[in-house]
Amino acid sequence: MVLFGGRSGEHAISCATAAGVLRAIDRERWDPVPVGITRQGQWVVAADDPAAWEIIDGRLPEVEASHADVVLPMATHAREVQVLTPGEVPSALGAVDVVMPLIHGPFGEDGTLQGMLEMSDVRYVGAGVLASAVGMDKHYMKVVCESEGLAVAPYVVVRPGAWERERDALLARITELGLPLFVKPARAGSSLGISKVDDLADLDAAIVAAREHDPKVLVEQGVAGREIECAVLGGHGGDRPRASLPGEIVVRDTNRAFYDFDAKYLGEGDVELSCPAELPAHVVAAVQDVAVRTFEALSSEGLSRVDVFVTPDEHVIVNEINTMPGFTPFSMYPRMWQESGLGYAELIDELLTLALERPTGLR
């Protein structure tokens, strides 16, 4: 089952990811069953047509509601996915061996969907419940990374209601971070709701913008350094995870303060995706080591993209981990593996194989 869409602000990006997978998957080996989740959370049979889910000329695709619902098996011994239509006998959509949940953000990448699949004993691609939840929450991701000796940028958490209750105390702590600041929703992706703050007078507006996506907000110290990404892939049979050659994002548009949503998905000429990144061999090795250690710190599985800063003195600082990164053929995760010798279709095969190898339940 190729599962995409979802209730988060990254709905359209998930659809675009599914388009890439449906176009490239080896249909002699895999029989894909596309299932979309609407913004309201309804599971529906989706068109097996990559063109229907691509971002074209700025048009963002969307899963539409249906009169029929797709339902996962309710018992651990079952594999048949049902289609329920009011007033009709349930019909079988097919027996599903593995789910590829190409859903970004809350209600898909945060452990909720993974828990649902675990309850049905359905194998799936990617991180489990805990790793997904921790990876989604930038606050707890930092807590876990710090506990494992990995460097992260200094930060202050603004919990729901705290800005109104204890503004002065929080502002004092935030002021100590210095400028510039980055204000982020704690549990969102694709740079949604992120603001760069160069003047504390703009902090209120930045927190409001972040809260549009998550009531919990993270205020981070800006890090002077290059933005480097590294793709991590799980190992077979207990082997350690594998790290790709790193890539780098360079924003060419001087009117953009950082790599925001529009630059990622709508402004192809505004950014340069350099892959592999031009780094000395010892820095490449350091980035790969930090990426694998971050993957292991969260007990991640399958795939993750680890984003880091490399400072002028060559320190590697973890920015975040993305347990279900963008996965179109042009996204950085598959591009980094392409440069490392693993093509897009082969990468899909590898992820599905890893998912089928691992047992269900505790592992």
From TrEMBL:
Top-level taxon of the source organism: Bacteria
Residues spanning the membrane: none
Principal EC category: ligase
Residue ranges constituting the ATP-grasp domain according to the UniProt record: 142-353
GO molecular function: ligase activity
Subcellular location: Cytoplasm
Main location: cytoplasm
Known function: Cell wall formation.
Protein name as catalogued: D-alanine--D-alanine ligase
Lineage of producing organism: Bacteria, Bacillati, Actinomycetota, Actinomycetes, Micrococcales
Gene: ddl
